[in-house]
Amino acid sequence: MNVQAWTFVMVALSFALYIGIAIWSRARSTDDFYVAAAQVSPVVNGMATAAGWMSAASFISMAGLIAFMGRDGSVYLMGWTGGYVLLALLLAPYLRKFGKYTVPDFVGDRYYSQVARIVAVVCAIFISFTYVAGQMRGVGIVFSRFLGVGINTGVVIGMGIVFFYAVLGGMKGITYTQVAQYCVLIFAFLVPAIFISLLLTGNPIPQLGFGGVLTDGSGVYLLDRLDGLGRELGFGAYTDGQKGTLDVFFITAALMAGTAGLPHVIVRFYTVPKVWQARSSAGWALLFIALLYTTAPAVAAFARANLLTTVSNMPYREVPTWFTNWEATGLIQFEDKNGDGLIQYTGPASDIPNELTIDRDIIVLANPEIAGLPPWVTGLVAAGGLAAALSTAAGLLLVISSSIAHDLVKKTIRPSITEKSELLIARVTAGVAVVISGYLGIHPPGFVAEVVALAFGLAASSFFPAILLGIFTKKMNNHGAVSGMVAGITFTSLYIAYFKFLHPELNTAEHWWLGVSPEGIGTIGMALNFLVAWVVASFTEPPPLEIQQFVEEIRVPRKS
After folding, report:
1. Tens-digit pLDDT profile for residues 284-316
2. Containing domain of residue 333, as a range?
3. Which of 330, 348, 366 is the last residue of a domain?
4. Does some domain include residue 99?
5. Do the Cβ atoms of 239 and 227 come closer than 8 Å?
6. Distance CA 167, CA 490 (A)
């Protein structure tokens, strides 16, 4: 069978599994829909958390970022992984002890304010829609290449699938679906990495092959070959960084704090029965995530080496099938500027104009074809990419629906609503959110990992300070928390909008404030949030005594 046939088989089998699980575990109550009745074991929850968090950005785009950025791409590895350490140590067990369903629930009750709850709902929806745009773009890319449809059509197909199992199953269905999706995506990521590591370095462990010697008899290390190829073609050395130190620090910090403040990640820790199991879940999730994250740099190096040696200076009439297939999607574009029929793939330091444009989101998906692996491996990778994108999209849609149905309608607008009506509103809201997220997937503000990084910055500048201060200080009041969240997310979103939408031509280091990119501005927004919150709290009345006692109770380290 060819690549497309294998892709149909792999995707159909995996989707049949997901939909079957959704039907088996469909939600019958709001407890099931929001937090899976808090009956999920730490190992299962850790696996589901890993799948929900390792989105299309992790599976599809992160290795592509590292492949094109070299060492600079490591900020995503450090930021996203470090964020889980923050989450496990500082937030997860305390939020589980609080109970309830959502982050806006915590903010509303801790800061004894419906205004605080509504601000948190708005932040959650804003962050989730930004994040889900990247996932739907990832879905569109996979379907575009492997099912022979346009990216927009691919997004629409993904919308239908997410709608079915997210709306039907709620958190209970999503949890067990995400366990299956984790198994699919990690297998799909590791299999081609092992194959290519063996082909290039003779080492079956990609993490070791990444630093190994090539099997071509030259005795040259893989990274040295990449450095040499990059310089020859006018690119910077692969192992050198091009970003400023300050921007690297700010991006890493924004990704770390954003991970610890993402509502669709935090809500997973409400699904375990005991408080100590929340911390255990974070530990298991980190282990499952590490399997992919320690492999990603190797996949990036393998793909970059294969790409540079395969395509550069090749006659266009002799390009392999994978090249023409991706060219049909518009994600690879060749313009023969000098009319010699050769593909000149060059960097900014070269005297020869570049004739090849490659979307970095295709690197992982195209990697097996570039390396000449069997067609079934390519089909498996397509299934893994869809699993990564759809698992995260489902979790985000649940955050949106629960924020509106539970926090806005049940807790604010109409407290007397029945559980059945609340569940209906949650499902309808999820359906509407699917449509909006599909539109955002068709018109995203950048490539997958870039869009996701913006969502992390928004989470860092809004939720992280409010949650951290709500747990660790009794002095923070509702006025300070609300003012901080509004100031942080407003500043961050305006900065992002200015460079990403209003003036994209100015989105370069020389125009950024203090040299900080839109992906890193969330750190400054977070600092502004902390500052405004403390200043406002200092000049307004302290929280009531019962709220201060509530904070003390959350922090008591009981194993329950």
Report:
1. 888 888 888 899 999 999 988 888 888 888 899
2. 315-366
3. 366
4. yes
5. yes
6. 31
